[in-house]
Amino acid sequence: MIIALDGPAASGKGTLARQLAEHFGLRHLDTGLTYRAVAAALLARGLPLGDEAVAISVAQNLDLGNLDRNQLSAHEIGEAASRIAVLSGLREELVRLQRAFAEQEPGAVLDGRDIGTVVCPDATAKLFVTASPAARAKRRTDELNSKGIPADFNEILVDLERRDERDSTRKDSPLKPAENAHLLDTTEMDIDSAFRAAVDIVERARKTAVS
């Protein structure tokens, strides 16, 4: 079984993906971390972010089952990841690796921005998780503040809106719901409500796939 979750930053898709993976006994991959891992390696080695051949070489040596979310969460790594994500050859290589991860038994939960449309178009269940920009900015601000990291709501809101624009208008694999994806708007939901709604969506999709 493959479960695909797409959506903009801070929509809650990552938390939901981890919960769904645990609930259904599947492996989990945050595909955004694959871009962050490549970006982090390039930054650490002082290599240019625009050299596609070098970025692909780095990607081919990643262990997708062992990506450290905490180490890759730095803002500068996120900005670098967004820049290298426009490299078509790198995207193709990472999609190949992500797809191979998903197809290993017993299946997986993948979250990102093009899972249902590009990486796993035949996924058992597809969810497009979203929330208003203001709700997402508040969540990100609260998350950072809870870790003792100073965060400004307005700056985060502007950053999220800029990323939304960049992700939804890029030429390769733009952020958009798959045609048969189930929309899950978490603006007014707490995480427990969102999780229950997501499980219901997946269960219905499984029954439809079996029948």
Structure write-up:
It is a single chain. The protein is built from nine helices and five strands; from the N terminus they run βαβααααβαβααβα. With 211 residues, the protein is α/β, with parallel strands linked by helices. It has two domains: 1-26 and 108-201, Rossmann fold (3-Layer(aba) Sandwich); 30-105, no CATH class. The protein has a five-stranded parallel β-sheet, with helices on both faces. Helix 1 (13-24) crosses helix 9, helix 2 crosses helix 3 (52-59) and helix 2 (31-45) packs across helix 4.
Would you kindly provide a brief summary of this structure?
The chain is of the alpha/beta class and 211 residues long. The protein is 55% helix and 11% strand. A five-stranded parallel beta sheet has the order 2-3-1-4-5, with helices on both faces.
How many runs of DSSP E, i.e. beta strands?
Answer: 5
* CATH third-tier fold name of the largest domain: Rossmann fold
Uncertain segments: none
The main sheet orders its strands as 2-3-1-4-5
Total number of distinct structural domains: 2
CATH superfamily of the largest domain, by name, is: P-loop containing nucleotide triphosphate hydrolases
Shape: globular
Main beta-sheet strand count, sense and barrel state? 5 strands, parallel
* Helix segment tally: 9
Considering DSSP H and I runs of 4 or more, what fraction of the residues is helical? 40-55%
Radius of gyration: 17 Å
Order of SSEs: EHEHHHHEHEHHEH
Strand content is: 5-15%
Family: Belongs to the cytidylate kinase family. Type 1 subfamily.
EC number: 2.7.4.25
Organism: Pseudovibrio denitrificans
GO cellular component, one term: cytoplasm
